[in-house]
Structures are given as structure tokens and as C-alpha cells.
Amino acid sequence: MPSLETELDRARELSVDDLADAIESIGFECTRCGACCTSHGEDEHTATVFPDEVRELQAAAAAGDSADATGSDTAESDTTAEARDWRDVARPMPYGLTEGEDGPEGETFEWALQTDGCGDCVFYAEDDAGVGACTAHDDRPLICRTYPFSVALDGTSQPMGEAVDEAGVVRAHECEGLGRDISRADAEALAAALKERAVRELEEAIDVRDAYAPVDTGAGEVVVHDSEGAKRPDGTQLSD
């Protein structure tokens, strides 16, 4: 198996034009069905989010709250953003955790977007006609910007299970929008985001690997390892 560093070099050398060609050959148009933002049966929505993306969503969501309340985007937004709790945006990735008497416990790697009581992404909303939309669309994480595609490199993630179509190094995952016409401009924009995501995922994986040190967790205690170190579920450093 190639090293993460080797795969990172490959990711950095990916051609956006080639990725766009692959996306065009598969075809895609978002139908706003909401399937990629909602739960499926007992499985909660799970989408990986990088630490800096959590902070961006904290700020964006809080700024949006302030703008909605005042009718304008004011300087108060920057202050309000500080009050947005980490756990309003992200939760520990559930994989690797066990269910103890006091709730989930153990060590896990990375963060997932927070979910609501129905298991849907907290940033997903539907209008009266049932049409879905992301309430943080302009600031959504790379995993969301690039769905339903991923890059076939070791160390990169595959959203929503195995690939249902492939073209070159581009994998397409289950989505009713696949097979639809996509403009060249949209394909290129998606391809650029897809390359950025592949690079970021591998950089994150290398940093997590290098920073990881096992932690003895007690009953009901959860520790999340990301590229910035070991953290509590509220996003604060364990060492603080």
C-alpha cells in the first residue's frame, strides 16, 4: 500500500481538467432531494468536517443569526460568532466509540457535522414544498461541496458507501442527480474542489497520524484526535 505521503504527492499533481472531464463523462446535477443531508433508517447523517471548517461554520452560522435578527450584516456578527458552540456544528465521529452506561465513550478520529433529533444534518432545512436546502450553503465543508464524488486515492474518504460509477480516479457515489448534464464551468469548479478535498484529507490524515498519542478514557469520556491534537467533544484541547 502506498504511503500517505506518496498519495498526497499524487493528489497535488491531479489535473483539474482531467477531473472535470471525468465528472462531465459521468454527469451530475443536484436535484435538492436532501438524501445526502439526511439520515437513512437508523443511520445518522455522517459527514467529515475539518477543524477549521467547524470554526468557519461557527462564524457563518452566528453571523447569519445576527443578520436575521437585525435585518443587516453588521459588525456585531463577529462578536456573536464567538458565542456559537462547537457542539452546535460538529460532533465526534461515531466510529470507534462504544456505548457505555453514561453514553458514548472511547477514542475516535475526526469530526462529523452535527445532527438534529431526526439524525439529519443541523444545517439542512426544507421549505413548505418539501424542497431541501443547506442553510450554510456558501460555507459548507468540502465533503458537501464535492458530493457525490470522491478521488480514488488511499487515505481519502468515500461518502455514502461504495462507488456506483468511476471515470479515471473519480468515483461517483449513490445519488439521484448522477447521469444528468453538467456544464463545463460547473464541472471545473467541482473538480477544483474535489482536488482540494483530496489534498486536505491526506494532509489531515498525515497530521493526525503524526500527532496521535493514545489516551486512557474513563466512563462516559470521549476523546477526538484531529490534526490539531487530542480534544474534548466541545472542541477544546485535552491538554488545556
UniProtKB/TrEMBL annotation:
The segments labelled Disordered in the record are 60-88, 219-240
Q: Where is the composition biased (Low complexity)?
A: 60-80
Query: Which InterPro entries does its entry note?
Result: Puta_zinc/iron-chelating_dom (IPR005358)
Q: Where along the chain is composition biased (Basic and acidic residues)?
A: 223-234
Which protein are we looking at?
Fe-S oxidoreductase
